[in-house]
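FIELD: query
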Amino acid sequence: MKNVTQKILDQHLLSDRPEKGQPALIKMDQTLTQDATGTMAYMQLEAMGVDQVKTELSVSYVDHNTLQSGFMNADDHAYLQSVAAKHGVYFSKAGNGICHQVHLERFAKPGKTLIGSDSHTPTAGALGSIAIGAGGLDVAKAMAGFGYAIPYPKVVEVRLEGELQPGVSAKDIILELLRRRSVKGGVGKVFEYTGDGLKNLSVYQRATITNMGAELGATTSIFPSDEVAREFLKRQQREEDWIELKADEGAEYDEVEIIDLSSLKPAAACPNSPDAVKSIEELEGQKVDQVSIGSCTNSGYEDMMKAAKILEGKTIAPHVSLTVSPGSRQVLIKLMENGALQTFVKAGARILECTCGPCIGMGQSPKSDGVSLRTFNRNFYGRSGTNSAGVYLVSPETAAASAVAGVFADPSKLQVSQEFAAEPSYVDDSMIYAPSPNPEEVEIIRGPNIKPLPVNDPMEDTITKKCVIKLEDNITTDHIAPAGAEVLPYRSNIEKLSQYVFKNNKEHFDQVCRANNGGIIVAGENYGQGSSREHAALAPMYLGIKAVLAKSFARIHLANLINFGILPIVFENPADYDSISEMDELVIENLMSLQGQDHLIVKNAATGQEYPVKAMIDAKDVPVLHAGGTLNHIKNMQKA
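FIELD: result
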């Protein structure tokens, strides 16, 4: 008896089914990239010498770096469009929408596997796909025909019972799960949703839940493919993509969470973590300065309409700035045609592009010490572009109610009808371009901001480096390689990007690395949580970082470190973390004898202490690390 997760994974295994927690090599049917991570991914694909992608479908989206304040982003977009045309990749142009929203609408299929160079790729799990976020190099490998390796996951059944009450949202479901499980409670696990409560959850509501499953640290999240999924695909004029997909009767799960939907109340994730959850009742009445509705979490037709119904006939509070970002051009046109866009504008909203925008700090930063309510998925420190701001994650209903009130407002207390016209069946793919039928005639466009890929040196038997930075728990990839309008244009220019590494943690970190010929990073629990951006490993590699010693790692970042030849090791005695100081010289020996899951000793030359550590690698990772990273390893295999 199998659950949905096992059914799909077992059909895509490229080797025998392993024990849970052991490496599994998975065939990937589809890939997606976005422009903040895609440029590097396609440069890596080129470096592998691949003429045409080997997947059933690969799509390149432009949705992150759309503020063209200089030539850099526009140059990257030209590169992405030309390389997609040449190598067999579909291209979704800037303005067509956010990758996860558009992929859900136009490409996601029940029973398929998807890997994307964005941590919120699991959004497609709302339609019964196994959709996994990863670093760009792993996505490039999938496009080149390599499988993707993950530990065969445990599966957590999340049984939804009852029905949501008026004013309570799917956002409140995933916030409740984050409250229970924390941002590291899903590592090595898939969250599979079951129960009678499913029948009343639309695909858009399911997508909010699978999208923010990434904040649990989960491998992915998934819903069954049922009549709700079928109706969604029918409206998208691709009912032929539907198959029924559900768990077998009596299927077993490793863990079970039961959520009574009828008992949930509107909630918010408080600064600066998605698991810092409080009810709106606890926050009610506190002043709000900014409200932003949109992002890949809550920018579908249904999300927009629920917010519009609350704003109908009202005006936002004088001191509040309200922005609205529809998730796709398809959604935007539907809002234009049914009058909801007019409702937003009359209420005082500023209409933004169909892009990620404020979610990644790409404009609309709050004022100093401001309170910003956002329907987004992350509220990490500094991510909004204003370090002193307090950013809260809320549902579209809470966001709209609070924009009008000017304070935290509980939408479940409003006497507002949430009835609205059913979503029309409207499709326009005119801004999604098929690859060229004559790829040999396509010339790839490379602007001056696109720099060659940095190359790592092979690993040496002994690493002797200083601890160039010591960090606390839950360091995110936003800490390591910040997003935002200032930094994102340099995602294809690692030399320039490296100047911003840890800019909010240690000023001039890049100069410290250069002065010491690289170094070792020491960190606490869950190092590298958040975005899939491989730049958080690639830029430190460029600066000479050879190892990261932490209490634990987030899944995607761990894989990215290995891909770029950086040794990931964990303390066997977490208390040893306390005895290391910045600029202590650390020595790690016998690295050419690595076998996988090795127990090593880190020597502190400054104090004479020794720390037992474990290498967080498998046997397959050893030749990759020895070569100095995946690209070097692939080139070595090609030479052989």
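FIELD: remark
The mean pLDDT is 95.
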